[in-house]
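Continuing the series of single-chain predictions for the mutant panel. This is the parent chain; the variants come on the following pages.
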Amino acid sequence: MVQLGGTLLQIAFLLGVVTLVASAWYVKTLDLRFYVGGRRSLMTACGLVLIATATLVQQLMVGNYALEYVARYSSRATEGLYKIAGLWAGMEGSLLFWAAILSIYILLVSYSNRSANRSLMPYVNMVFAVVLLFFLLVIVNFENPFTLLPAGTTIEARGGTGLNPQLTHPAMLIHPPMLYLGYVGFVVPFAFAVAALITNRLDATWIRSTRVWTLWPWLFLGVGVILGGYWAYAELGWGGYWAWDPVENASFLPWLTGTAYLHSVIIQEKKNMLRMWNVILIMITFILTIFGTYLTRSGILSSVHAFASTDLGIWFFGFVVLIIAFCTALLIWRKDELTSTSQLESFTSRESGFLFNNMLFLALTMAILWGTMFPILSEAVRGIQITVGSPYFNRITSPIGMLLLAMIGVGPLLAWRKTSRSTLLRNFKWPVSTGLAAMAVAMFLGVRKFYPALTLGLVVFVFTGIVLEVFHGVTARKRMTGEGTWTALLSMVDKNRTRYGGYIVHIGILLMFIGFAGRAFTKEQDVSLGKGESMVLGGYTFTLDNFYTQQRPTHTAFVADVAVTREHKPVTMLHPERRIYANFEETPNTEVAIYSRPLQDIYAIVGGMNPDTQKIVLKIMLNPLVQMVWIGGFIMMLGTLVTIRPSRAERKLRAAEA
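Parent structure:
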């Protein structure tokens, strides 16, 4: 089985080369046999990659500890599902997982375009092949997961090391696959953009062909980022969900540019504008996915999420440079054809709102990228790494975030081409009034911090605009059709899923911003308590009832029983732990205790134990509105699914075509 896995990857690499040669020869001769041969070679290569991946999963499940990768990322004590998670826990397996997901996308795109986009598909296949070949080259020559351990190695004898305990969390079963599905999926619109540039088919056809193939990766990447935040919050034990870690930023950057792209293509489809801009945006998004993979695997930046330092950095960096050079050459070649014939007619137009929105997304991307890369740049210039922390990111991103939040509300209130003064006054009157009133109420109730008060005002401003937009639409439809309120609402959403699904996404974002604002009111205290001793925080009394040691099959646990009361009434019992695993004794693992309420989380962490004083060190935190972040993320997901699902008319058309 081990030999089979390695051999299949080598054959897949050769078939990728065949795809390139056959597709290029088809472009030259237009001999359909070469197109079909190249397409089949690529699909066969993808099938072999998937079989090799399944082989590695099978070796993880059965526990073949003679295989070095299995010995390092699985063990006899590892539970079944977490044995599967071993596939993406290490460098070699994660690269194979990347190639496997790319193979799935290629197979799906090839099948869905078997009789469509014939002029674009040869070039699309060549882009797919180049990306797949790069990853297979790295896997086969440098990070092969099918390498055997020398006979009699200690790690084999003890039945494997197993996963890092921090990875044995339910979120880590979903978070990495979601990120990979998002990262890899952006290769599809990128490949179609390259094909459109080469063939000079630069109308909105390639955008419509890849709309779903862009929305799914955007959704997957967003879900992955949110799940990563939840994992950090529930597992790492520092009390937050986002620390501006380099790897966190690397996953966030392509989501930002992908969001800008999804907004921007609406203008091209409706007004045939921003053609150059849209191509650049999707190119940047794909480049950032490869760049994020480079950051994670090069070891150039310190991160709790990164893999160990390897020599792969130079290969990924070279691939990024190659893609940038290729994209730049294509843009220069087609710059005249990409020039839009239509121009912005007014600053107070929806087109202008979308464009300003894009500028803000790009500014936010550049600010985060600069802060992330600053340690590398400072080392190159001054010889020492200077790291910028959360204060920099919070200070620079907060005003941009507020402007983006405002633009979520402003854009839908503007008309296409030009918005008259009377329309501006009519559309903005109630949203602005309610937003200002919300700010005033917040300040009256004691919210003295600027950004939380502003956030509340902007959230109410945006929400009022959405409600009024939906209300006017339902009222107009009821007047025209005589339908009831709910029937009119559902019919209206079904007819324009992109617009109203986007509004649902925006409502999710509003809830997330409320959750972000709650961070400004977090209360925390570090305290050393003995049995029976108490401390008070935020109106709650925390009493250490007991602490004890438990010996468990895989680890030793130091457990604290903390009783939480309010006004002498019991609220909950928290059981935070500190665990020491046999194979990871040098890195004790924190098990957080969280009691969640709709408006506040009570969060407890065991910091350590003093055997001399028989006291335990606890960190107690009150985290307001954290649940809004997770609820908002869920609503964003629902809104995206509404947007992706075709309308009733589109479903009937597809059925008729079939």
